[in-house]
Amino acid sequence: MTEAVQTETLQKFRDGFYKVMVCTSVGTEGIDVPDCNIVISYNYSGDEITKIQMKGRSRKKGATIVVMGDEKQLEQEMINAYKANMMYKAISELKNINARAVEHKLKMFQTDEMQKLRYKTEYEKAKKSRRSEDDLEILCRRCNSMACLVSDVRKLGSQHFVIAKDFPSKITTKPHKSPKKYDGIEKKGKMYCKKCPLDWGIVADRDGVDLFILKLQCFKLRNMRTGIVSQHKKWLDVPYDVPELGLEDIPKFFRNETEENASPE
Ligand SMILES: [Zn+2]
Questions:
Q1: Cα–Cα distance between 133 and 63 in angstroms, integer?
Q2: What pLDDT, in 10s, does the model give residues 13-28?
Q3: How many Å lie between the centroid of ligand 1 and the Cα of residue 237?
Q4: What is the pLDDT of residue 252?
Q5: Which of 32, 71, 90, 153 is the most buried (most CB within 10 A)?
Q6: How much distance in Å is there from the Cα of 139 to the middle of ligand 1?
Q7: Ligand 1 centroid distance, CA of 154 (Å)
């Protein structure tokens, strides 16, 4: 059927010259027949949009839509009807909202989304630029004695702590007067450089494991390849991507304990 014939046929149906029109699913789209009072859909169901469009085909008051098909189709039709009703409800609710308020909300939403996108892009950029393959030595800020390597540091939430086995031999500790618990971590004591003795941070207990949480301001970092020394106030500024504590790190804690237990008295 050519488009001209299609248009003519449709016009004749609209004018009432044809009383019935048989068509494929194309009949649900973009055809407007105000006087049509019954639509029979045979073995066909699309989605809720089709449903609404089909309803548009039969806009006459009291018009009927009949769906013929198997149970699966019936189920789909019921879902479509439900979704279409939700859509009508949402649209009518939207109509009741003041246009200015909608515009204002939209603008706020857009600004917010743009801001988020900007932050995300900047963050990704910053993350990439500070990532370095070079390991860094973490040195006591006052006496230069080495604490550990930055590759021995792991992140757990906002805390950065050392997982190097020999780290406890480089510090002295003092118990905390009033141990504080937060985020599942108990502040047990303070740790100091064994040599000078600068305050290096805190010793915390998490599920029976000692965590040596470094106070970054008390250290300087030396790039092992270039020898460049830097100081940072925030871990975010450290040119190394400190990994989160992973499952693979856990044996390091336990190996530590078993080796201590196995060592001769
Ligand atoms: Zn020191």
A1: 72
A2: 889 899 998 888 776 6
A3: 22
A4: 65
A5: 153
A6: 8
A7: 22
* H/E element, 111: helix 99-130
Other C-beta atoms closer than 10 Å to the C-beta of 209 total 12
Q: Which two tokens stand for residue 153?
A: 């540091």
From the CA of 223, how far away is ligand 1's center (Å)?
Answer: 19
CA–CA separation, 198 and 191 (whole Å): 9
Determine the distance separating the centroid of ligand 1 and the alpha carbon of 147, expressed in angstroms.
Answer: 9
Which residues have a beta carbon within 5 Å of ligand 1, which is an ion? 140, 142-143, 145, 193, 195-196, 198
Q: Residue 259: which pLDDT band, with cuts at 50, 70 and 90?
A: very low
CATH value of 3-95 in 3.10.25.10, 3.40.190.10, 3.30.2130.10, 3.40.50.300: 3.40.50.300
**168 Cα to the center of ligand 1, angstroms:** 14
DSSP secondary structure letter of residue 243: P
In percent, the amount of the chain with pLDDT more than 90 equals 28
* Residues making up the chain, counted from first to last: 265
Pairing of strands 38-42, 64-68: parallel
- Centre of ligand 1 to C-alpha 196, Å, is 4
Under a CB-based contact definition with an 8 Å cutoff, are residues 29 and 47 in contact?
no
Confidence of residue 223 (pLDDT cuts 50, 70, 90): very high
pLDDT given for residue 78 in this prediction: 83
> Which has more confidence, 69 or 131?
69
All CATH 2.170.150.30 domain ranges in the chain, comma separated:
136-246
ipTM: 0.98
Q: Could you tell me the distance, in angstroms and rounded to a whole number, from the CA of residue 193 to the centre of ligand 1?
A: 5
Please give the mean pLDDT across all residues of the chain.
82
Centre of ligand 1 to C-alpha 34, Å, is 88
